[in-house]
C-alpha cells in the first residue's frame, strides 16, 4: 500500500482549505454552479474523448495508486538466479514443478515455454508482446487522468468567462461588481485545484509505477532467456544486475553475509 498518495492528496487539499479559512471568509469559496461547470465539463469532455469501457475502469486505475504490490528488484533477481541454479543442476525440465510457486505469472509463462522447448526467438517475441500490451493498458489509464487534468482548468476558464459576461451584462449596481468578479474567478480556482492536487499527481504516480513494472518485466524476460540458454547462474545474476543502479545492487554473496 502506498500511503504517500493519500498523504499528498489530503495534505494538498488541507493546505488549500486552511488558506481559505485564514483568509477570513471560507464561505466565499463555495459555489455549486462553479463545481458543476468544472467537474461536469471535464467529465463530459473525457466521455467525448475516450471509449466508455476505459472510462468505467478509471476508479480501479485510481485505486492502483494506493493499493499497489511492490516487488523488490533484488528479490526478483535472486528468485531468477535460484531457478537458473535448479536448471543448471537438474535440467530445465525440472523447473516445471516450480511454476506454481513462482511469484509472478510472467515468470511462470516464460519458464513454461522454455520447458516446452519453444524456440527462443518465439519466447522473446511472445513475452515482449505481453509487455507491450501491459504498457498500453497502463498508458490508457494515465491518459484519462491527464485529460482530466487538462480539461478541468480549461472548463474553469470557461466558467470564469461565463461569469464575467453575466457580470458585465448587469452593471446597474456597481456595488455588486466585486462579488460578481469573485464568483466568476471561483471556477478557475476549482479547475486549478482538482487538476494539480488530484488528477495530475495521480497520473504521475501511475507513470512511476508503470516504469517500475516495465523494468521488472524486462528483467524477467532477460532472466528467462538466460535460463533457457543454459547460462551459469552467476552470469544470469550479473545480467540482471545491470538493470539496477549501482546503489541498489545487492548480490547473493552480500545477502548471505548480511544474513549471517
Structural key phrases:
single chain, 260 residues, 75% helix, 0% strand
Shape: elongated
Measure the end-to-end span.
30 Å
Structural class: mainly alpha
Q: Give the helix proportion (percent range).
A: over 70%
* Secondary structure tally, helices: 10
Give the domain tally: 1
The H-and-E topology, N to C, reads as HHHHHHHHHH
How much strand content do the residues show?
under 5%
Strand elements, count: 0
Low-confidence stretches: 256-260
The overall pLDDT average reads: 86
What kind of sheet is the major sheet?
Answer: none
As a whole number of angstroms, the C-alpha radius of gyration is 26 Å
Describe the structure.
The protein is 75% helix and 0% strand. The chain has one domain. Helix 1 packs antiparallel against helix 8 (177-228), helix 2 (32-49) packs antiparallel against helix 7 (120-168) and helix 5 (73-90) runs parallel beside helix 8 (177-228). The chain has 260 residues and is mainly α. It has ten helices and no strands. It is elongated. Residues 256-260 have low confidence and may be disordered.
SSE topology sketch:
Elements: H1 3-22, H2 32-49, H3 52-56, H4 58-63, H5 73-90, H6 105-115, H7 120-168, H8 177-228, H9 233-241, H10 252-259
Helix pairs in contact: 1-8, 2-7, 2-8, 5-8, 5-9, 6-8, 7-8, 8-9
Amino acid at each position: 500500500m502506498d500511503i504517500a498518495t493519500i498523504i499528498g492528496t489530503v495534505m494538498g487539499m488541507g493546505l488549500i482549505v486552511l488558506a481559505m479559512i485564514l483568509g477570513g471568509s471560507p464561505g466565499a469559496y463555495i459555489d455549486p454552479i462553479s463545481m458543476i461547470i468544472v467537474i461536469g465539463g471535464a467529465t463530459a469532455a473525457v466521455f467525448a474523448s475516450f471509449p466508455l469501457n476505459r472510462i468505467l475502469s478509471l476508479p480501479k486505475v485510481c485505486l492502483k495508486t494506493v493499493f499497489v504490490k511492490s516487488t523488490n528488484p533484488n528479490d526478483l533477481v535472486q528468485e531468477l538466479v535460484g531457478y537458473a541454479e535448479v536448471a543448471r543442476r537438474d535440467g530445465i525440465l525440472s523447473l516445471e514443478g516450480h511454476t506454481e510457486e513462482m511469484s509472478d505469472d510472467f515468470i511462470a509463462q516464460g519458464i513454461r515455454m522454455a520447458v516446452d522447448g519453444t524456440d527462443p526467438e518465439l519466447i522473446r517475441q511472445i513475452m515482449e508482446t505481453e509487455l507491450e500490451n501491459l504498457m498500453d493498458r497502463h498508458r490508457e489509464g494515465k491518459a484519462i487522468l491527464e485529460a482530466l487534468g487538462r480539461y478541468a482548468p480549461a472548463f474553469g476558464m470557461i466558467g470564469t468567462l461565463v461569469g464575467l459576461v453575466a457580470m458585465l451584462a448587469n452593471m446597474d449596481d456597481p456595488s455588486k461588481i466585486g462579488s460578481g468578479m469573485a464568483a466568476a474567478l471561483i471556477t478557475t480556482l476549482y479547475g486549478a485545484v482538482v487538476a494539480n492536487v488530484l488528477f495530475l499527481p495521480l497520473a504521475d504516480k501511475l507513470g512511476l509505477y508503470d516504469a517500475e513494472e516495465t523494468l521488472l518485466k524486462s528483467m524477467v524476460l532477460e532472466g528467462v532467456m538466460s535460463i533457457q540458454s543454459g547460462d551459469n547462474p552467476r552470469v544470469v545474476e550479473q545480467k540482471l544486475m545491470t538493470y539496477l543502479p549501482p546503489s541498489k545492487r545487492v548480490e547473493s554473496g552480500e545477502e548471505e553475509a548480511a544474513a549471517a
